Amino acid sequence: MPLPIAGGGPIDADVVVVGAGPAGCALAARLSEDPARSVLLLEAGPAFTRARDFPAEIRSARSLAATDPASPLNWAFTTELAPGRHGPVPRGRIFGGSSAINAGYFVRGRPADFDGWAAAGNAIWSYDAVLPFFRRLEADADFGTLPGHGDAGPVPVRRVAAHDLHPASAAFAEACRDAGFAAEPDKNGAGAEGVGPVPLTVVDGTRVNAAMAYLLPHLDRPNLRVQGGSVVHRVLLAGRRATGVEVATGRTTRVIRADHVVLSAGAVKSPHLLMVSGIGPAAQLRAQGIEVHVDLPGVGQGSSDHPSVAVAFRSPPATGRAASSAVEVALNDDDVEILCYTASFEQLVTGAGDGELALGVGLQRCEARGSMRLTSPDPDVPPQLSSHYLTSDVDRRRMRAAVRLAAALLASAPFRRLGASAPAEVDLGTDRALDAWVAQNLSTSVHLSGTCRMGPDRDAGAVVDELCRVRGIEGLRVVDTSIMPTVTTRGPYATAIMIGERASDLFAAP
Fold this sequence. Notes:
510 residues, 7-stranded mixed sheet, 6-stranded antiparallel sheet
């Protein structure tokens, strides 16, 4: 059953965490391990006390129904992917956040990603520094007892065994190996990149989201409270200190006081809340009639993400073992990732479809940087997002090469034996034709990061320091993927939880 909305007057807490997504769940759970610290976690969507109470489309790893813009469990933001082309940016509005609506893909960032953060002035986020927190969070059923892994953490990690792979996944893995790509059995290790099984937070077909992993086992803690249906409108400030939040529960708006406020609302809502609270680019705030408390020009600016396209193909219906997840195998090659989807996106979202499958092709390291623009002082009006994808020659060239690689894999012997058809609708003949096809089919991997990026004092665009503290405001932190200086070259879900884990150990700092 849903957790009740707390009644009565203002609620005081040592720490208020805004957003029960991956980072927020990890942070709230770890902070509340100290019985002397009271923690209140606020979630805009519904919260639940038992795993079986989550809606079926949230529990099933074979469903992406909640990513539909019409779903009430989705914030349903949109972005301008490129000039003239807009697309959805689904973000979870439910206990567990986006970990409750994604495909369960749980791959760490690469060591070079974190060492790059450290080189940019965030020394405590190097790979060696964050590795203990990746180990702490996981219960890896396949590699948990090996160095660099953990087997006792709250997050279950599984890979689909080779003999259980969907036929398309097996053909894809074979095609990649035949093409000369190395085997990568452990994508959460630090070895060479290649083709291998995707680590998943899926157990017996159930998507285990961050709330299930971190919070459901600890809801009996007297110092931990969770409120669903609580939409935070703004951070309350007294001078240069955060004192709490203004939150709407149904038709009631009230104030919650706290010694510390942590925004873990995600890479869209966290910067948006800063802006409507008077923290952000001064010109944007003044244009909307918002009093400027701190001029932080980097709020909402310079974000990074992974542009993607789906290369569709047809394959005979699978017989025997059915896939338990939307994606089972991935190829990683420097700045390209190709995922083999075991169902069409239409089927995964709506339950309908005609058996069309797809290779999802993503650029994992691109030059494009996105932006966010405030369009209203009303916190219920979403900001305008722009991704600026494929605006550089380098990114366009890399995307062409990635699509051509996907097409070549689909034309290989393993797929021919499967009876799969190559993508006839993709015009590979000329760069101009392929660019036009990519532009028409461009999408996002929904890995938005860096909208409140961390950095040293010398970085004029940094919003938080390496301790996650918002510059110019005491008692206010941001803890989610918005603080990432650049998006990791693998999907950021595992990194988001690591950020919550890491931040909990940093919280002793004033």
